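Colleagues,

Please find the record for the two-part complex below.
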Amino acid sequence: MIEYDINKLIQLGSQVVERALAKGADVAEVGVSEGTHLSVKVRMGEPELVEEAGSKSLGLRVMRGQQVAVTLTSDLTEAGLARFVDDALELAQLAQPDPFAGPPKPELLSKASEHADLQLFDAAVNDIDAAQAIEMAKRVEKAALGYDKRITNSEGANVSRQAGASVLVTSGGFRGGVRGTYTSISMHPVADDADGKKRSGYYWSARRFANELESPEEVGLEAARRTLDKLGSRKLATQEVAVIFDPDAGRSILGLLASCINGGAICRKSSYLLEREGQAVASPLVTIIDDPLIVRGPGSRPFDGEGLISRRNTVVEAGILKTFILDTYSAKKLGKQSTGNASRGSGGGVGPATTNLILQPGKQSAKALLDSTERAFYVTDMMGFGFNAVTGDFSRGASGFWIERGQRVYPVSEVTISLNLDDILKRIDAVADDLDLRTSICTPTFRVSAMTVAGR
Amino acid sequence: MTNTSRYHAPFGPAGTEPVDADIARTLLQTALSRGGNYADLFFEYNVAGSYSLEEGILKAAGRSVSQGLGVRVMKGDATGYAYVQDLTPAAMQRAALTAAQIAAGGGAPLPKTFEVPSLSTRYAAQYLSLDVTGETKRELLLRADRAARQADSRIARVEASLHEELREIVLATSTGKLVHDRQPMVRFSVRVIAESNGKRQSGSSGGGGRMGLEYFDQRSPEWHAQEAVRHAIAMLDARESPAGELEVVLAPGDSGVLLHEAVGHGLEADFNRKGTSNYTGRVGQRVASDLCTVVDDATQFGSRGTIHVDDEGNLPERAVLIENGLLSGYMHDQHSAEHFKVKPTGNGRRESFQSHPMPRMTNTWLLAGPHGPEEIIKSVKRGIYARKFGGGQVDISNGDFVFSLTESYLIEDGKLTAPLKGVNLIGNGPDVMSKVSMLGADFETSDGVWTCGKDGQSVPVGVGCPTIKISSMTVGGTQMG
């Protein structure tokens, strides 16, 4: 039923661009996306949920002079689209002229022939059906529940796949599209702890290509191990101590930085990194690259949300902030060039966003990093929203392990870790080599020399 | 219901193709054709508008329309779910058939007639914000901008935004319910940045509810602008927050976020049906200090979490969750209510037609206690007073939760002294609730800004509470000792 036919979507996009221009828009940009999704959950051996659907939506940004409106609709009937375009133009008239508004220069737009084949679509993922997905989920859960008798319950095993296509058509002359897939397996076992508390753990694998996923058994066993590892968790005493972030926790830290190098945040003065370009913002061990051109990468794409060619940007090089992440608008406002990072958001709006943002791996293994650690809090999970982008102040709930002389001594929960993000990045004194590109923001294991841990 | 609005769901009673009993029965028949024992159809039309002001001008205006049908089929504990955006008969039939696949054998009977329950009036959708001219809404934002700039010369930036929404639903169930509701919403927010002596801080204020622009009769754009300015200016002098276990006093209103995380989620009955919550099997037991009575109340007029009917067709009332510290019951959707053999509490909610319902909170209140707020602060030797909040999160299995403070003060010898930098509090639900040692008589509901996330689904909720004293809680600051 859903063909992910890029040419058909481009045709629809072109019609809406033409219609908007005919109604008086000076600039019209249309993004159309279409996709299917399947998600199953198996709990205690039985299928609990099978969810399957297709969706299609169209986003439009119009400009009348320098007045801007953004609209999004899933009503693609003829009458629905006619009213949608009228609404967009009426809204643009309500907006007030913004001197920095405008489309990218036509000569900057990329051509389809320049778009790299990044291998983002796997037909095998698209073909996974509900019966297969349930079978996989059963294997995941069976492996986890069978691992140890202390695993007594489960929030379930999930298997999901999504597939789709999206295109962009602009009145400046850009036409392009891309197809993609993504599939994931996850497991969430629950164990009974000695104090009557329950402990839940989690493990997952995700990839664009089905044959690159970890096996259901591997995911189930690792989830079980992680859950058991949490039994007997205790609080730490309040202290200043080294903190090691595993790749899941590390990703959250890099995600906070992503919000602060975003050109939109810089324009809004909502980043502690304002006016810090060219300065040291992290330890010399830290190099961070935003790379949309990684073959099969989760955040990869051949062109950006305004039609500019994708390019690799070094954001932080050996601790020095080299560039912010910019789209046409934020670049113009800051007196710079777009870095090719425009992204079309869920509401149809356009703003800068990272693609595959990666803390470059170091040379030592994660084990060697641990071995070289005298005492540390090793963080595997974080909770809450305690971050102020304007000041960089950071304080979040955390759990993980207490480390002495490279060994896990006991699991830790119900503590917080705090330090300004600027200091966290500057105090990174070791980076491991265990990078696993599961998500579009990604780090290896790394260590921060000292943070405040609050507990007992 | 009104016929004056420009915005009507095509499938609603005032729409171009209203869903009637015949259409509903035909689709339900397909949904149950493979042997499901329950099915429902959830038609949803959601139109939203957004207006955002920055640097003194309305920078961008936006609108989105989303509509579709979600078909759910249940067989025992298993759920099949499919949705479509295309509301043509053929596409709807395909969705019903996809959802039907979950079941094999058996089959529930179809309803002969549909009962249309009469709904209370807990919000009025006569005067939708969406139907008001854009210029009127632009002026509200400009008023906030002017007021913020006038309030203090250290204000370097002002952002204001207005979000408006209409959600219209029609729900038909194989048990014979046919329900229609129109649910309005507005949300207004102001965010400012203050700069002084090389320091930069932000402040914010927001509110709204299930209503139209009459919201501004209670709280003006100027009020929110001044509140955001007050917050930002106060934070300019913020110092490092202490680290470790301290006495904590929470301001009334938004502090209800603590309740939402500490006990609310753990009392959603899906976790208890599965036995994965630390409140499983504890009805009748003590789970909080005897000062605490907690209710989930969907009835408060115009509140952000208020609903006439849940997303499964059940009618919610005020449900007592904890009474004088003893656990009295859970929040149920249809599925968990059947499992526990109790009446559904009307807490079955879903983000949209693209998602299946789960037990969710509506407006969760911790009711007033006996103490005066000044008396509570005076009782603290050294602690933290929490005034504004950034949100929280809970680990259901063990009850550990966090919530972050965006405005707080040190309490020294019974007095508020220095403002503190943003900080997280962490605790364990039942443990913290047992340490509620004083409770104010000053109950307040939060102004409508909160959104709750669970399993990737967001729904609007309300929170409310009086001044709360917790005798000891871990404060995640950076200052040792």
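Chain B has a mean pLDDT of 93.

Comments are welcome before we finalize the supplementary table.
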